[in-house]
Automatic annotation (TrEMBL):
<dbReference type="Pfam" id="PF07969">
    <property type="entry name" value="Amidohydro_3"/>
</dbReference>
<dbReference type="GO" id="GO:0004131">
    <property type="term" value="F:cytosine deaminase activity"/>
</dbReference>
<dbReference type="GO" id="GO:0035888">
    <property type="term" value="F:isoguanine deaminase activity"/>
</dbReference>
<dbReference type="GO" id="GO:0006209">
    <property type="term" value="P:cytosine catabolic process"/>
</dbReference>
<dbReference type="InterPro" id="IPR052349">
    <property type="entry name" value="Metallo-hydrolase_Enzymes"/>
</dbReference>
<keyword id="KW-0479">Metal-binding</keyword>
<dbReference type="GO" id="GO:0046872">
    <property type="term" value="F:metal ion binding"/>
</dbReference>
<dbReference type="InterPro" id="IPR011059">
    <property type="entry name" value="Metal-dep_hydrolase_composite"/>
</dbReference>
<dbReference type="InterPro" id="IPR013108">
    <property type="entry name" value="Amidohydro_3"/>
</dbReference>
<dbReference type="InterPro" id="IPR032466">
    <property type="entry name" value="Metal_Hydrolase"/>
</dbReference>
<keyword id="KW-0378">Hydrolase</keyword>
<feature type="domain" description="Amidohydrolase 3">
    <location>
        <begin position="40"/>
        <end position="400"/>
    </location>
</feature>
<protein>
    <submittedName>
        <fullName>Cytosine deaminase</fullName>
        <ecNumber>3.5.4.1</ecNumber>
    </submittedName>
</protein>
């Protein structure tokens, strides 16, 4: 007898009419036509059952702070950083925890059960690190939260950042971050990459670095990051986030850069919503999208995970906690419209990001944690198109959130009484 049995589900790889049996918080059976009984049975009715959504790049210490102390009038990255600098001295542990835990409530409702958050360590008080470590403890039963020690004002540019970063790591923040393009010179940026990779190597930690978040094609710190990854033996443990300068680089240079990144076994984490909002601000027309080269990165075998980055904070006045919004924007901005490309984008908000974060027991195979999301959609492409309701959000075999199906009632002579958007999926192969 199973604790939970999900019947008649469609899986992201295209398998249909499959059942999943759960015992003790783990998946113990994945097959068609399971006849065993269960303490709880969910009929998926052919809808898509997926592993949970995973956000590999977020700023939980800043979330839900929009308007504090004022709005970002220019809408630029630099004004956002300046605004955060004004807010930072007033931050309290209690306020940070309250906003972050409220955001996690929203995340869970969207089927987002794993987040990697960058934590600003530029303030030597480290109230941000203290607060986010407490948030990690509070949400651990229902959400996996990884924390990155992030010197927002620059590892060298901010005089106290180097010491504060080391202390944050000592406190339990587990990933080394950086922002080389925000240092005062290209040389300082390159030095910061080397210093931060050395710290990660010495401590046995992962690296996730804001890298080249600019329109400047000469901002090439990702090249240095790849080289230092190999030098310090960090292959498979390093991610470059944003990488927007790659959008402006010439094709010849990128043709050399991508193999270097692949050799270093680096991952790439674009953030389509905020990259599209913040980049290209100095352009008139033609106006650059500012989003890194997602199709080319994928074609080079580089793992690509898509992040939300910000929700209602000094940098981004929008956001919903829904990784399918992120996938939807990525698909449009990259023009990745084929069936295979849509599935690749869906992977970038699920399995790819789980791989980048090193999540254990993630997936829909026997032995994996019973963490799943039932969507009101028929396949991954439809999930991106519709951004549908999360009918069930399951953590370790228990339903922790659910939303009623979206159904619209019609009063039209000779037409159906209701409309279910998930019934509009194409009936032919993509």
């Amino acid at each position: 007898m199973f604790d939970l049995l999900i019947r008649n589900a469609t899986l992201p790889d295209g398998r249909t009419a499959h059942d999943i049996g759960v015992q003790n918080g783990r998946i113990v059976a994945v097959e068609a036509g399971i006849e065993d009984t269960a303490g709880e049975v969910i009929d998926a009715e052919g809808q898509l059952l997926t592993p949970p959504f995973v956000d590999p790049h977020f700023h939980m210490d800043a979330t839900l702070s929009l308007g504090l102390p004022r709005m970002n009038v220019s809408g630029t990255l630099l004004e956002g950083i300046a605004l955060w600098g004004e807010l930072r001295p007033t931050l309290t542990t209690d306020a940070l925890i309250d906003r972050a835990v409220r955001y996690c409530d929203l995340a869970v409702s969207k089927g987002l059960l794993a987040v990697r958050s960058h934590v600003d360590v530029s303030d030597p008080r480290l109230v941000t690190a203290e607060a986010m470590l407490e948030v990690r403890r509070v949400v651990a039963p229902y959400l996996d939260l990884q924390l990155v020690a992030f010197p927002q004002d620059g590892y060298y540019r901010c005089a106290e950042a180097a010491d504060a970063l080391e202390r944050a790591l000592d406190m339990g923040v587990e990933i080394v971050g950086g922002i080389p393009h925000f240092e005062r010179t290209m040389e300082d940026g390159a030095r910061s990459v080397e210093a931060l990779c050395r710290i990660a190597a010495d401590r046995g930690l992962r690296v996730d670095m804001h890298c080249d978040e600019t329109d400047d094609p000469l901002s090439r710190h990702v090249e240095t990051l790849a080289a230092q990854t190999v030098r310090f033996g960090l292959q498979g443990r390093v991610a470059g986030s944003h990488l927007t300068s790659m959008h402006s680089m010439d094709n010849y240079y990128v043709s050399k850069l991508l193999p270097l990144m692949a050799e270093a076994e680096m991952a790439a984490i674009p953030n389509p919503l905020i990259n599209m909002m913040l980049q290209g601000r100095h352009d008139t027309y033609p106006k650059r999208r500012g989003l890194t080269r997602i199709p080319e990165l994928m074609a080079a075998g580089i793992p690509v995970g898509l992040g939300q980055d910000c929700v209602l904070d000094p940098w981004y006045s929008m956001g919903s906690g829904d990784l399918l919004d992120v996938a939807h924007m990525a698909l449009h901005a990259t023009q990745m419209g084929s069936g295979d490309q849509k599935r690749a984008i869906f992977d970038a908000v699920t399995v790819n990001s789980a791989r980048i974060m090193g999540l254990e027991g993630y997936g829909l195979e026997v032995g994996c944690h019973a963490d799943m999301v039932l969507l009101q959609a028929r396949d991954p492409a439809e999930a991106i198109r519709l951004r549908p309701n999360r009918l069930k959000v399951i953590r370790r075999g228990k339903v922790i959130a659910e939303t009623a199906p979206e159904l619209s009632c019609l009063s039209l002579d000779g037409r159906p009484a209701q409309v279910d958007p998930s019934e509009y999926a194409p009936r032919h192969s993509a």
